[in-house]
Q: What sequence folds into this?
């Protein structure tokens, strides 16, 4: 089944020169990811995708800045740009699998709510796609009026004013409407790849109408967007569901025939905290797709349910971050103490625990498959030493730093099994160097709140995507980085990263990435515990699906409206 280019889309390749190399992160190839549904495009039915549903959806109010809530908003709200899955993905005859949830190569980005953009030295001009209407059938305080530039400018300014708008500090001055369908982003100094990403397709860049902010936008029933689905219901402990937007603006071409989207009548995102229950639901066909199948279940699924399609990929790193601000404990101010803690950490044991032992131990702050990656064997000897487990040396380093008897510390983690297992292993390892670890556990939503507000004590765990090198270098460790939870500050590092952000030539970016790597590992504001590995499983009755993970920065729901349910195939398979 050959998919053709979507009708009416304007593909703007102004940024094609930024990254010449295309990095593929998926282990699965084109044949493995191919959709096997053979019933042809069909309308109707319910599609169930399990992704982030291990905890209840957080408050969606932008002012509360609950990161996890955006994955429940994505079916209803859209971004300005997206990955061109129909132009460059497998469905369109291309090669890029769109299986990285944290990275889109710039040459594969196309317009979504905007149809084109122009990069200037001091600004970014955006042209809004005409004829898109807000989908407000689920509320009584708004009409299904047309989306205009003023709506987007209003939302972008609200984004900057929200607590998580600190990512724009020093980057963006203002966003203004310049016409009914045009707007301009004014930069503080010069064009920034980082700000382009934040506004264009980063997961928080979803667009909502100004009327919604005049209501109680902490309520899920009040969420409105331009997306393919409308809010239906939220049942705590069970699911959140959405219904088809009958007036959705986009369409797709399949075998030369144009189809309105979405195909499905109902889209479900279940809430299933227990891993065993998740896997049972996948095995029995109660869920059609599971985005993050834990590695412990891969072999049994392959044996018991061979009809499941799968892809495996790595795009993130589990980090332990030290609190380096004045509110943190004094020992963390000493980089030799931080170095001792990493030398006292058996990195390879953490990799084995998380089934990533076949991946490189060193994959931070640049992903190991990126052209700007500096391999472990090319690091200075003192940085290579960080990855060699040596508790005796670590204990002596702590004594030399003034802690001969060690110390006691709190480690903040969430209630997920990966956090719990790694915390227990770390607790045992660090007891051998005289450090007593108190493990402080919160549910995932509360833990996210603690980390983003830097309200933890001593250290915390957080998994972070590192496949976008420019963004990763900035957000973890730049003074203004929005994931700089430990409040690390180094003017030398900041200068290198700012130069990296302003460098458009991919070859010239590589030595800057090397410099950022050396500084980050020398100062060590984080211990990179292990690169994560993901298992992505789905049933072949998902028609018009090719194993993609997202068309934006993250969120499998951005793919759902392309998919149809092949009901005949599902029935023939006994489900």
A:
């Amino acid at each position: 089944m050959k998919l053709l280019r979507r009708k009416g889309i304007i593909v703007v390749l102004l940024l094609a020169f930024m990254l010449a190399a295309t990095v593929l992160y998926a282990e699965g190839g084109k044949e493995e990811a191919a959709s096997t549904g053979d019933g042809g495009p069909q309308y109707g039915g319910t599609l169930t995708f399990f992704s982030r549903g291990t905890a209840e959806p957080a408050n969606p109010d932008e002012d509360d800045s609950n990161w996890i809530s955006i994955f429940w908003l994505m079916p209803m709200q859209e971004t300005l740009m997206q990955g061109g899955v129909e132009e460059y993905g497998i469905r369109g005859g291309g090669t890029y699998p769109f299986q990285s949830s944290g990275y889109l190569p710039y040459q594969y980005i196309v317009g979504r709510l905007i149809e084109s953009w122009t990069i200037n030295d001091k600004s970014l001009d955006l042209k809004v796609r005409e004829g898109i209407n807000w989908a407000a059938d689920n509320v009584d305080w708004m009409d299904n009026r047309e989306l205009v530039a003023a709506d987007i400018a209003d939302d972008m300014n609200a984004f900057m004013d929200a607590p998580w708008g600190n990512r724009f500090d020093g980057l963006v001055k203002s966003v203004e409407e310049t016409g009914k369908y045009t707007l301009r982003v004014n930069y503080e100094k010069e064009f920034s790849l980082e700000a382009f990403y934040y506004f264009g397709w980063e997961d928080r860049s979803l667009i909502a109408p100004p009327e919604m902010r005049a209501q109680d936008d902490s309520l899920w029933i009040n969420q409105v967007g331009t997306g393919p689905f409308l809010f239906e219901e939220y049942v705590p402990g069970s699911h959140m569901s959405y219904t088809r937007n009958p007036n959705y603006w986009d369409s797709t071409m399949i075998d030369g025939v144009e189809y309105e989207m979405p195909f499905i009548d109902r889209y479900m995102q279940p809430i299933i905290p227990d891993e065993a229950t998740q896997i049972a639901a996948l095995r029995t066909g109660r869920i059609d797709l599971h985005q993050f199948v834990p590695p412990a279940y891969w072999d049994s699924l392959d044996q018991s349910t061979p009809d499941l399609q799968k892809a495996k990929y790595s795009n993130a790193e589990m980090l332990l971050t030290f609190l380096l601000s004045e509110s943190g404990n004094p020992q963390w101010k000493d980089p030799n103490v931080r170095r001792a803690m990493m030398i006292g950490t058996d990195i390879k044991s953490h990799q084995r625990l998380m089934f990533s032992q076949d991946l490189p131990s060193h994959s931070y702050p640049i992903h190991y498959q990126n052209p700007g990656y500096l391999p472990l064997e090319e690091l200075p000897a003192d940085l290579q030493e960080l990855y060699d487990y040596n508790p005796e040396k670590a204990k002596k380093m702590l004594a030399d730093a003034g802690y001969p008897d060690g110390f006691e510390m709190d480690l903040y983690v969430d209630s997920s099994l990966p956090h719990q297992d790694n915390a227990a292993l770390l607790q045992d390892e660090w007891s051998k160097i005289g450090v007593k670890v108190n493990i402080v556990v919160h549910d995932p939503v509360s833990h996210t709140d603690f980390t983003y507000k830097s309200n933890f004590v001593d250290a915390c765990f957080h998994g972070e995507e590192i496949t976008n090198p420019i963004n990763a270098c900035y957000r973890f460790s730049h003074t203004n980085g929005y994931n700089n939870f430990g409040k690390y500050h180094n003017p030398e590092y900041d200068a290198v990263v700012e130069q990296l952000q302003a460098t458009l030539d991919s070859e010239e970016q590589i030595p800057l990435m090397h410099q950022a790597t050396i500084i980050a590992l020398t100062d060590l504001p984080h211990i990179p515990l292990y690169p994560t590995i993901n298992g992505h499983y789905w049933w072949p009755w998902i028609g018009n699906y090719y194993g993609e993970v997202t068309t934006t920065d993250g969120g499998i729901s951005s793919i759902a409206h392309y998919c149809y349910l092949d009901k005949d195939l599902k029935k023939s398979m006994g489900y």
Notes: Residues 219 and 266 are 20 Å apart (CA to CA). Residues 1-37 have pLDDT under 50 and may be disordered. The radius of gyration is 23 Å.
